[in-house]
Amino acid sequence: MIKTVCFGEIMLRLSPPGFERLFQSPLLHATFGGGEANVAVSLAHFGLDSHYVTRLPANPVGDAALRALRAEGVRVEPVLRGGSRLGIYFAETGASQRPSLVVYDRAHSAIGELQPGAIPWEAVLDGAAWFHVTGITPALGPGPAACTAEALAAAAKAGVRVSLDLNYRAKLWSKADAQRTMRALMPYVDVAIANEEDLQASLGIEVARADVKAGVLDAEAYRAAAGQVVREFGVKQVAVTLRESLSASDNAWSAVLFDAATGAFHQAQRYVVRLVDRIGGGDSFAAGLVYSLAAGRDAASALRFAVAASAIKQTIPGDFNRVSVAEVERLAGGDASGRVQR
Predict the structure, then answer these.
(1) Mean pLDDT of 254-280
(2) Looking at 259, 277, 283, 319, which residue is catalytic?
(3) Which of 54, 262, 272, 306 has its CA 20 to 30 A from that of 252?
(4) 288 close to 327: Cβ distance less than 8 angstroms
């Protein structure tokens, strides 16, 4: 069985019912999620030996987060316990012209206080085929940034393939800080995953004729930007997700992938998705790509699978993409009718 390792922060997610505003009624639904945790869950559902590394407080909230991961089939033996709190985020689901809203409460979280040398990366990565992290983790502070660098160096030494989803978060750090940190990490990366804002904010690579707010996309501009990532950092493959924000309720979704070895530029199928929950959509794309490439699929089929997986995720409430390989392959193969399966 293929072993994968993901490293990052899992958070407590608090959301009002349905499409209510935050605290419109005195109810909040509690679940868990976070970039790398979402990827780990998807990989477990795809049948891989999925391991997750983080630091959680040794209290009932941390215990609940572990139970949530175990329930999805994720291996949590590498998780460290310590610190005083789990990060929280409040998520309000938008509709039509009202955008969704996320409010973070993650300062001084357990993983934010993680220090270099705390994680035995050689042991954690033993037998692993793939390591995944995002740009969110180094944005949490100097300690997590140093731990991310340690992990990438250990993965390179062990011959473990590395994927990094740039995932720029303006509420966590500035573009200058992001570029200073992320550009130094990129030489360790085999597969880079981004959208147009990530490329510009985290790496300083402009995407011509792209408007992230209006959803204006130009595939050739992404080919040029991906090629620049390959030339500057030696990345083997660059995947860019393409989201057309038609409204808070309806998005068009696709992706492209540049393969350095062949020089091929692949563009996936396009779906128009009626959104149920877009949070975790990018993570489910990353997981679909990691699963496919780790399983030996070619770049074009890996991209098709990843886009289909992420399209399905955006119809499922919560952070986690609870789908099987067969379900994703059905959609990737062209069955987008949504007819009842009996």
Answers:
(1) 93
(2) 283
(3) 262
(4) no
